[in-house]
Amino acid sequence: MRRLNTLLFLFLGLLQVNAVAQASADGAKLYAEHCSVCHGENGTGGIGVPLALPSFQAAIDDDYIRQTILHGRPGRVMPAYGYLGKAQVEALVRFVRAWNKAKKPLTFPKTPIKGDVEHGAVLYARDCAACHGARGEGGKGTGVTMSRPRDLPLMPPALNNSGFLASAPDAMIELTLMQGHEGTPMVSFLKKGLSKKDIDDIVSFVRNFEKTPLASEAKLVPGKDSPIIVRDSPYDLKTTLENVKRSIGDNEYGWGRVQTLEYGMTSPGNENKHQVIIYFCNIPFLNKALAIDPRIGMFLPCRITIVEENGKVRMMSINPKVLSRLFNNSELNELCDKLTEDYINIMEEAAL
Amino acid sequence: MNSLKRFAVILLLLQAVALPAKAEGLMMVRSQLPFEDALSALEIAIQDQGYAVTRLQQVNENLAKRAYKSDMYRVVFFGKLSEIRPLAASHPDLIPFLPLHITLFAEGKDTIVLCAPPTDLEEWYPDPKLKPIFEHWEHDMRLILNRMQQQKSL
Q1: What's the whole-model pTM score?
Q2: ipTM greater than 0.90, yes or no?
Q3: Å from B45 to nearest chain A CA?
């Protein structure tokens, strides 16, 4: 029995050592699993920013990556990976930082930089707001452009973001302002003619965002609304369908196709004709939404299902306002709110 | 239970807790296949899981008709009659989420493939009878996405 216990102990010990070693060694695997979809297999960017960009790597430290993994960017697509174990986070940090070619990697002190916030606000409005937003809300869109035209090769980060502020110490922001990021629109502010004091004033103004968080971040807290929109129709299915078509047009959408819910899963003669989906779209609205977040295809195309059961007819759709939280993109929330309003208008007008 | 066995149980529990959890948000992978190949591979992967592909929604073509530029973009709808019919009858509130769908779009020479995690629906549909269905869908979706991520050629 004692021998068995010893063997069990050794086996479990080996299991733990193996688990830790695997987590340590699997930065590449973890990156492929969690990061490459947005940041690209080689860190060249996509939906996410290009992590391998030399000027970016040269201006950050390991802890910036570590804290970014843990905090994410609430409302700015990048999710928080707080559920990853410490060894996994460290493996990811090592993997991402292997792109840093600087001979002596930086480590930033956490001490605050003391500057004149009011003067920093003036300089920020003059030199930073055009790209990073008047209130630090960041540029529009996601990451670098590959799928569709964008104005900038890189999305200017949201500086007024709890994830960014928790990840970037003052000294790092200062260095970025002094050096800029070659290969992006972020230029050196020293070369622009600002003094070190001016730069420190801007750093203090950016740090002051912690006291004035954006409301859009708070909006990501899940609500208690239903994930679907449902309205009863006083008409039969055929009439309701015609009413929905008309109402779609009245709300500046175009309907494209009508089919049963079971279409394609069985022969046409066997389909349940009492469950009908009508697809519709507003192309300019779609284009705007895709420019904000190409993942919005999850909601495409707009569709309402009309169901007739026991003589009662109901119109149903998903509720984009509720489901938008899946995207962690506060800019998208406004469009999803409008989409929810439009769904409700279309259904309520069809039921009149 | 002696202390060694207690230690062993604790270690096993810790091991279980250390397994990767589901990320917040969407299920997404990057396929190294170019878009057209990725679309074909996705259809095959969906069918191999026993689903019928019911509709390929063109997105970029519709944008192009109004002179908007976009790279290739599709939404692929799919389902099984043996699941959809009884589910729509027993839980009509799920109908807006049916049939299932996966989105894909070109990102440079790669293709991004994504879907919403079906188990997220448990929050709004807590009926215990639905839990295995959501889990089964998510399992299938994960298999499909993993295959898309690993496949290097058609």
Answers
A1: 0.84
A2: no
A3: 16
